[in-house]
Amino acid sequence: MKCLYLDCVGGISGDMLLGALIDLGLDIRMLRRELAKLKLDEFEVSARHGQRQGITGTKFDVTLREHDSHHHHGHDHEHHGRSFHDIQRLIETSKLAAEVKRRAIGAFRRLAVAEGKIHGVAPEKVHFHEVGAVDSIVDFVGACIGLRALGVERVVASAPLRTGFGFVDCAHGRFPVPGPATVELLKGVPVYAGDEEAELITPTGAALLREFATEFGPMPAMTVSVIGYGLGSRDLPKSPNVLRALLGDVGDSDARDSDRVAVLETNLDDVNPQVLGDVMDKALSAGALDVFHTPIQMKKNRPGVMLSVLCAPADADRLSRLLLENTTAFGVRHTEAQRLKLDREMVVVKTAFGRVEVKIGRLGGRIVSASPEFESCKRAATKAKVPVRRVLTAALAEAEKLYD
Is the pLDDT of residue 378 over 60? Predict the structure, then answer.
């Protein structure tokens, strides 16, 4: 499995991530071709080699075309930037790959939610100032294009993340470092200030980390094949302003046989069964791996249910909120569990009643489980006009032969 480890040595911003991806081998011409699908003719992208404290890497830049800055002075108010809603529409209607659209909008939504919370407006209505909007669009969409082009299947980021400290001047006035949006986005991730008086992690950088990194911590066991350095825009006094990206292989056996899942649980003593059914559907369509509930005895001898959701650690916050919003719960417990799982594959077996799908599970390459898919058996039974148990028995007999 191809894994990218983002070592945020000197922080992370959108342009540092793109610089690192180009340094890893992302072809900038291919990036330009893909970005052109946005139908935004107001920017150009470029990349050049440079150094930060003796480390050579790639500096990525987005420059706004001149003609744009001329005409907008006249009618500044209507050209005051784009709302998240506009940006979402711009990306949606482009000819970019569906996966790129989904991830770019996902990262943007995170940023809009954080900014909205700070400025007290709905995420859709958050406005990104002109330059900022184009910059962020290129950063988010470009990063998604790059990660896809490099075949990255899993992203892990270093922790604790060093944010820097001090103040920074921006469109809204003087902001403390790390900026309010950055802090909001990095909730739940270990961070520390460190000794550099500078903004090391931008809101865009934080949103990209949250969208793509499935875990934060030391580098996992991996065989590194390429290393890229993305350069930040300035020389820091005490450390190199670079983002180091290590691309390599995580041992398949390790990644596939076991992974980490978040377990969300909440005890409910007054939940309407119909609401429970609705929440289960909502959680599954929002990306939960599994949802189930268990009858429990609660205090005051009330019968209740414990609602449990299994999901990827990166989705835990979102699904916890979904549970709080859609049930009578006042709290959701969140633990992480190590999970050993089988490698799954579907095969088709022939029976006297027609073809039936069988799900096989392998452990370290060896088949240890083979079970007929019930829905598939049901279809065959209906067609052959026999009870489903007969098809199941026949399919089981065929499945037995699959064991090594």
Answer: yes
- Percent of the chain, pLDDT > 70? 93
What CATH number has the domain spanning 258-340? 3.30.70.1380
SS3 per-residue string spanning the chain: CEEEEEECCCCECHHHHHHHHHHCCCCHHHHHHHHHHHCCCCEEEEEEEEEECCEEEEEEEEEECHHHHHHCCCCCHHHCCEEHHHHHHHHHCCCCCHHHHHHHHHHHHHHHHHHHHHHCCCHHHCEECHHHHHHHHHHHHHHHHHHHHCCCCEEEECCCEECCCEEEEECCEEEEECCHHHHHHCCCCCEECCCCCCCCECHHHHHHHHHHEEEECCCCCEEEEEEEEEECCCCCCCCCCEEEEEEEEECHHHHHHEEEEEEEEEEECCCCHHHHHHHHHHHHHCCCCEEEEEEEEEHHHEEEEEEEEEECHHHHHHHHHHHHHHCCCCCCEEEEEEEECCEEEEEEEEECCEEEEEEEEEECCEEEEEEECHHHHHHHHHHHCCCHHHHHHHHHHHHHCCCC
Q: Can you give the pTM of this predicted structure?
A: 0.64
Domain ranges for the chain, please list them.
2-250, 258-340, 343-400
pLDDT, tens digit, 9 for 90 and up, residues 303-340: 999 999 999 998 999 999 999 999 999 999 999 998 88
